[in-house]
Amino acid sequence: MENPYIPYPVRIDDIEIATEDKSLKTFKFVFLNKGDEEKFSYQAGQFAELSIPGVGEIPIGIASSPVEKGFVKFTVFRTGVVTSYLHNMKVGDIMGIRGPLGNWYPWDKLENKNVVIIGGGFAFTTLRSSIVYMLDPSNRSKFKNIDVVYGARSPGMLLYREELFEWEKRSDINMHITVDGTDDPNWKYHKGFVPQIVEQNAPKADKDTYAIICGPPIMIKFTQPSLTQLGYKEHQIIMSLENRMKCGIGMCGRCNIGKELVCKDGPVFTLEQINQTPKEY
Fold it and tell me: pTM for this structure?
């Protein structure tokens, strides 16, 4: 058994500024050893620890998709010591990735179902991974209707803008893009908070429709009633509590909600599961 604390060495292959305020960057990593890439076999919805020797490590949702080969991507918000250090690194620098970690969205359960993807802010990373996975030609026929509601504070804070607008052109996915507000006279998408857009545009629930939510806790909190109003049952609402991720393997105990360890038992839970835990989220 390999030591779960030892990261795989990777090289930064590309860096993209993801938002207009430059607070988020998308890093593309390639593994130094082909065998490590094969071991890093992940599912959409999982996360990993980005490790910088002598600085620390941070848990981040995987933004690339399992159907994208030869690299792995993460979109990182500059918010602390490790993320600030990473934002100052250059293409060609070497660091580490530990994982993949946690569970993932229940893809087997979602086959032959309608799927509603709901995201807000920079938590859209694992949802980007999920959309790319579902739209891949080898997978698209496994799912029925796909609806996406994604919101940010302003147009310049939307992640993966080029992909968003390309997805909007497709006939096999329904995109509902929104911002809290904008003065842009050419803005042709929604204006309003995510829960409001969900209530207005998401399909009503039936036994074959599931919703996946990932975003700030406040967004998740106010989106739940909108989904309930649309008829979604607790087992049909799937949530990622990735903001609570810590060591990644359930050893430090800092991620717990009652007896559940978000790093190990999650970060993906149904609302039904979460409602059986203490009201800490």
Answer: 0.93
